[in-house]
Design goal:
Order of helices and strands: HEHHEHEHE
Strand order of the largest sheet: 1-2-4-3
Radius of gyration: 15 Å
Largest sheet: 4 strands, antiparallel
Number of domains: 1
Number of helices: 5
Distance between the termini: 9 Å
Structural class: alpha+beta
Shape: globular
Strand content: 5-15%
Bound molecules: iron/sulfur cluster
Oligomer: single chain
Length: 177
């Protein structure tokens, strides 16, 4: 499988990723506590259709991960506030990769990104379906994934961002079977 995924690794690198790693889905860590950080700490909680309480629960994610045999964990480093368009482009990159994998025969491919969906300029209209369901993907953390522990398992040294001056690392996951 690793050899087969090399094509996608090359493509991810071309998009400006700072690191691309193979990870066994068994090493993608899920915690019930992760949702607490969304609910009590993120002002996007309940405002985006890709975020809790609309995103997959930790229990759903645990079960779902068992249905995959491989994954790619990859990161982007973009300044938090200045480069909104770049951050927005991550979701487009993910959707493109997922689609390409699907068309290549990996029909279960599923991509996950980082942070609240920012494809629309305004908050989601929660009374209506997502305006860009073909592009919008939940973040790892929105699904209960412990991003720090998972990064460590993938061999990525992820540090806590301590100031708005620091450059955050956006973590993505591409599940494949
Ligand atoms: S694409 Fe728009 S409507 Fe859909 S989750 Fe993202 S911001 Fe909300």
């Amino acid at each position: 499988m690793k050899k087969t995924l090399n094509k996608y690794i090359k493509e991810i690198i071309k998009t400006g990723s700072s690191a691309v790693k193979f990870i066994d889905p068994k090493k993608v860590m899920v915690g019930n506590w992760v949702r607490l950080k969304c609910q009590f700490g993120c002002d996007a909680f309940g405002t985006r259709l890709t975020c809790p309480p609309y995103s997959p629960t930790p229990e759903y994610t645990r079960q779902m991960l068992k249905e995959y045999s491989s994954a790619l964990f990859f990161t982007y480093k973009y300044p938090a506030l200045k480069e909104r368009k770049k951050r927005q482009s991550i979701r487009r990159i993910l959707a493109k990769l997922e689609r390409e994998m699907f068309l290549d025969g990996f029909y279960k491919a599923f991509a996950m990104g980082a942070g609240p969906c920012n494809l629309c300029p305004e908050k989601c209209d929660l009374t209506k379906p997502c305006l860009h369901a073909e592009l919008a993907r939940p973040s790892l953390e929105a699904c209960g994934i412990d991003v720090y522990a998972t990064a460590k398992n993938a061999g990525v040294n992820l540090k806590v961002v301590k100031s708005y001056k620091d450059t955050p690392t956006y973590c993505c996951l591409l599940l494949v079977e």
